[in-house]
Amino acid sequence: MDRYKLIKEVGDGTFGSVWRAINKQTGEVVAIKKMKKKYYSWDECINLREVKSLRRMNHPNIVKLKEVIRENDILYFVFEYMECNLYQLMKDRQKLFAEADIRNWCFQVFQGLSYMHQRGYFHRDLKPENLLVSKDIIKIADFGLAREVNSSPPFTEYVSTRWYRAPEVLLQSYVYTSKVDMWAMGAIMAELLSLRPIFPGASEADEIYKICSVIGSPTEKTWLEGLNLAKTINYQFPQIPGVPLSSLMPSASEDAVNLIERLCSWDPCSRPTAAEALQHPFFQSCFYAPPSLRPKPSVARTPPPPVGPRGSFEHQSVKRQPVSLANAKPFNSYASPKSHAAFGSGVQRKLEMANQDGTRNTKAVRSSVRDSKYRPPGKKSPPALNKNRFTRSVSEAADKLANMTIGGTGSRRHSVSVVGQHQQLKPPSMKAGWVGETRDMYLRPTQPTTNAYSRKVAG
Ligand SMILES: Nc1ncnc2c1ncn2[C@@H]1O[C@H](COP(=O)(O)OP(=O)(O)OP(=O)(O)O)[C@@H](O)[C@H]1O
């Protein structure tokens, strides 16, 4: 670690604190995630999902893991550095983002997701804080909960941030898919367009209530499997008609609203895949430039944006024709004009009780950490790193971190560099929110004249 100088803490997550740092030898700015838990052997490290999944991914919209270091039983991840996350961009903003910016970000994220899902992984914890931005580029970060799609259910230990959690996960389904990432993206898109979280549930039960309040309660037509799933846990959905999504984001285009409706479909099968989302008319003005066709970047370590408005890339021939999505259902079909008396009964308590089951998730822990997450950084000085290094040899570390590649010079005794591996893998599932908005926030159309994020942090 003495090759790096820690500059400033830029993030404090559940599992680690993240620091901006400089590689003293090369001058490269990096982000170093110092894990909170101690790791007493490499065996423990290689089993970390973050290591397992990230080392296999090499995509311009997935944050690059450059190196893993274990020193004095502390584990450090060295990542490429990104300027900020999407939440930070939204929180103090009064003026809505231009839709073109949102389109550009989302197009890139869907490309990253498409890559990841096709290689057999799903993220399980997409949220604005995990989407990192540097200038026009956005990258998916925090693979602490990523899973291989073909890993065997039941996925019991998952946790995800509640506001972005898919209904099948809220209903405790043990079998869920990469479509949970698509739900999260729908919620994130809506938040980007309105500068307000769309489903800000204060508990799991309230989360379902918030979802019903917006997209309307599920019916046999819209999510038969979900109704069955609810029966198995003795849960009864509140009966609420929902509201037109456009009323929550009056300035959003029809295409944007339509894409969000599809992403936030009750039935996971009705949600588009990431590859299908890229074909949605909302992205008509975007096109994907395969890496081989991209203009060479002038600075080698900063890849060019993989997306841009028509004409921003040299190779316009790669522009795709938009196609309509399969399984699309009109948004209004979600509406179910019944009362919502069923909610708030013993059923709700049951869900809340489930929250307290420590064997199933760590949501409470995450929630409390998250409350303190947005304090201004830089108050602490960089931790004094013990110079007494981890003494294992490179070859041993390499053996342990099976598919990682040892990088650099022979002097790197305690660290392992990582390069993306284009292996064919099999894909898979999610963390917690905090008490926030009042229940009826989305029952009436709102204008983002006040900033939702001050409440979000304070709540
Ligand atoms: N590569 C990076 N460059 C710049 N900042 C980063 C980078 N990686 C993470 N961060 C910052 O640190 C924060 C926490 O990082 P991360 O989500 O990886 O930690 P975590 O412990 O897994 O957090 P969580 O509680 O979300 O699980 C991010 O929201 C982001 O602001």
TrEMBL record:
Residues 356-365 have a biased composition (Polar residues). It catalyses: L-seryl-[protein] + ATP = O-phospho-L-seryl-[protein] + ADP + H(+); L-threonyl-[protein] + ATP = O-phospho-L-threonyl-[protein] + ADP + H(+). Keywords: ATP-binding, Kinase, Nucleotide-binding, Serine/threonine-protein kinase, Transferase. It comes from the Eukaryota. Residues 4-283 form the Protein kinase domain. Gene3D superfamilies: Phosphorylase Kinase, domain 1, Transferase(Phosphotransferase) domain 1. Pfam families: Pkinase. ATP binds at residue 34. Residues 294-320, 353-392, 405-459 are annotated as: Disordered. One of its GO terms (molecular function) is kinase activity. InterPro entries: Kinase-like_dom_sf, MAPK, Prot_kinase_dom, Protein_kinase_ATP_BS, Ser/Thr_kinase_AS. Belongs to the protein kinase superfamily. CMGC Ser/Thr protein kinase family. MAP kinase subfamily. This is Cyclin-dependent kinase F-4 isoform X3. The gene is LOC104723142.
